[in-house]
Amino acid sequence: MDHFRYREGALWAEGVALSDIAEAVGTPVYVYSTATLLRHYRLFEEALAGLPHLVCYAMKANGNLAVVRTLAEAGAGADVVSAGEYLKARAAGVPAGRIVFSGVGKTRAEMRLALAGGIRQFNVESEPELAALSEVAVALGTRAPVALRINPDVDARTHDKISTGRKEDKFGIPLARARAAYGAAAALPGIAVQGVDMHIGSQLTDLAPFEAAFRRLADLVALLRADGHAIGRLDLGGGLGIPYAAAGAPPPLPAHYGALVARTLGHLGCEIEVEPGRLIVGNAGVLLARVLYLKDGEGRRFLIVDAAMNDLVRPAMYGAHHEVVPVAEPAGEAPLAPFDIVGPVCESADTFARARPLPPLAAGDLVAFRSAGAYGAAMASEYNARPLVPEVLVRGDHFAVIRPRPTYEELIGRDTLPPWL
Ligand SMILES: *Cc1c(COP(=O)(O)O)cnc(C)c1O
């Protein structure tokens, strides 16, 4: 459920007409709904209410300061994967004790920064990284709180580029090496083992891979405890999928996920950490664009819009589907005709959809790409010298620009000339 609805013949975000935002800020522009963000965060809170838990929002899905602060004020922690995200989480008001640091290649500088600034836990992905973290912690006269990310060798059955829990993926420590790695961790002077971490992939639309992973995790915890390790926390990662297409079976609800967690892991008495990203922000955002031209090709019609793959790369990168809807509500009986929806960038990959059935549209009309709140603005670039796409946050009947569109002067001024030119 989200708060983007047709009302009085036009698409609104909560109490704001999207056309008003397009008028004020220009297009393309991302628009996020506060009520939807908070609703999705609270679904996780409720889903895990029966267990001690912490919801650490995965900032890489959408790291805008205003988005992170909205969630931090509601009580969320953060899952960060770089020094930049760590500092942004702190700037957004996330307490250090609610930040977990994930990622397959943390640098010593990043470890130092987080240890000095305070951190709930590092999710460590290899034994060499563990040794490096121990050295950094000892040099600072402290011990680093750690969970080891274990790769359970479960196929998340999602897109290949976002599957992370198979043994051929680069992530985590293989399950077969887990006991040895915990043995090594216990022997290191700068490491304080807290728990076990997993994250098997993103956009999972089925609970079965989670169930397989959680059962392996429960077995592992029993073994590690028998080996003498105090395992008090289980970080289950993120990955719960969202409905991108209007048709098709909806993915599992957080409540069902929570029930699965309780059933498979609840008896262990651990504090549960989850790191949802996409499920919190995905359907809380749209990308608003304007139709530039309609063009007739050989046997195809192209709808050329002013947003491009640099603004929303998911279709080009993952073959992802986004619903595209007109901002002016189409008449119920409006005939649908197939369009290739494309942007202005000089790449054939700059295609948002092929042969997408759309109601009649004309140059100048506004369209909204739905479910664009996660991995949208966060992955945007200035390719083709297109200024970074701006972002707007709606709350009730107000909206605010939370990242302005850079001017051309700013865009050009970011480069510097060497003394010989
Ligand atoms: C990407 C990622 C997440 C968030 O995944 P979503 O699919 O957005 O929920 C959580 N944890 C880790 C370690 C990740 O890499």
Question: How would you describe what is shown here?
Answer:
The termini are far apart. This protein has two domains: 4-31 and 282-413, Lyase, Ornithine Decarboxylase, Chain A, domain 1, CATH 2.40.37; 103-274, TIM Barrel. α2 packs parallel to α9. The longest helix is centred in the middle third of the chain and has 19 residues, at 208-226. It has helices at residues 18-25, 34-47, 65-73, 83-91, 108-117, 127-139, 178-187, 208-226, 254-265, 278-281, 314-318, 408-413, and strands at residues 4-7, 10-13, 16-17, 29-33, 53-58, 77-80, 99-101, 121-124, 144-151, 173-174, 191-197, 233-235, 271-274, 285-296, 301-305, 324-326, 337-342, 351-358, 366-369, 391-395, 398-403. The mean pLDDT is 96. With 421 residues, the chain is an alpha/beta fold. 28% of the residues lie in helices and 25% in strands. The strands form three sheets. Strands 4, 14, 15, 16, 17, 18, 19, 20 and 21 form a nine-stranded mixed sheet that branches. It has an eight-stranded parallel barrel with strand order 5-6-7-8-9-11-12-13, surrounded by five helices. The protein contains twelve helices and 21 strands. Pyridoxal-5'-phosphate binds at residues 58, 60-61, 79, 102, 199, 202, 237-239, 275-279, 374.
Helical content class:
25-40%
Specify the CATH class of the largest domain. Alpha Beta
Uncertain segments are: none
- pLDDT average, as an integer? 96
Shape: globular
What is the beta-strand fraction? 15-25%
CATH architecture field of the largest domain: Alpha-Beta Barrel
Please count the beta strands (DSSP E, at least 2 residues each): 21
Structural class: alpha/beta
Write down the CATH topology of the largest domain: TIM Barrel
